Amino acid sequence: MYKKLLLLFIILTLFFIPILVRQAPEFKLVDQREEKYCDAMITVVGVDEPIPLEEYVVGVVAGEMPADFHPEALKAQVIAARTYAARNTDKGMKPIAKDVSAQVYRTESERKERWGKSFKDNEKKVRKAAEDTKGQIIVYGEEIISAMFFSTSNGKTEAAQNFSGNPVEYLQSVESPGEEDVAPTVERKQELTLTEWNRKLGFNWDANQFRELKLVRNQTGRVQKIMSGQYETSGRQIREKLHLASTDFNIAYDVNNQIVHITTVGYGHGVGMSQYGAEAFAQKGWTADQILSHYYTGTKIQEINLPEDRCLKSS
């Protein structure tokens, strides 16, 4: 009798075990870091629908930096662009412009048109830079910084105080060597007739004013102000009104032909990260973190922190 019961138990056990195994619930391992990250939605003026922040920075890097730059330079640009957006949109609460008044954003269709046959390769490079730095922004203390950047320096970046009159601890002048080796053009030349010069600047100059002209430069070599007799204005005003490449400029006047010759060095306002400087450093082996800590003095990189009700959770 005992042997018959034991045999029955074994048969029933062998029958039910496969059924229990098939009905056991599936368990998935969840990456806790992925669960914690969430993506802000960015409203871009002129774009129909809000864009996830991580998608937005892909479009900004495509609009602001050559895609053939070193991967570490691209990553530095992604982090700067993400930081700029986080601060200027209040982490998605305010809209942001699509052009140079903020930072240039290119939609996917615009990227395809711009890159042509190189679209797939360029898109892959830029997206990898975004993925490798996902959620990273630059802070000074607990504050998201104003991550200003520009194209090319004259060998030094500009201090915020010289540019705007307001000192910013993390936007100091720093050395930016080697750009002439990677940038297609560092020096540019421009000519204006005397009539154009006076019209654009609102001046009434003749040869005498050019003879008395003084360019007052700051410690970065850029023109802080120009003076001639009773005339005085800032180098920044001259750059903006004449659409000069930078405020590191020289002026020469051809009396016989009444032509103003202007030579500029660098491109952009000069404050924050130089993009070609980032490329030069990357080619020397610097990481994105090293590049950013150099151009933004005393800062650190951390993940963006968003309230639960203000973000699109990652899948």
UniProtKB/TrEMBL annotation:
Highest taxon of source: Bacteria
Record domain Sporulation stage II protein D amidase enhancer LytB N-terminal: where: 49-140
Transmembrane segments: none
InterPro entries xref list: Bact_Sporulation_Assoc, SpoIID/LytB, SpoIID/LytB_N, Spore_II_D_firmicutes
Protein's recorded name: Stage II sporulation protein D
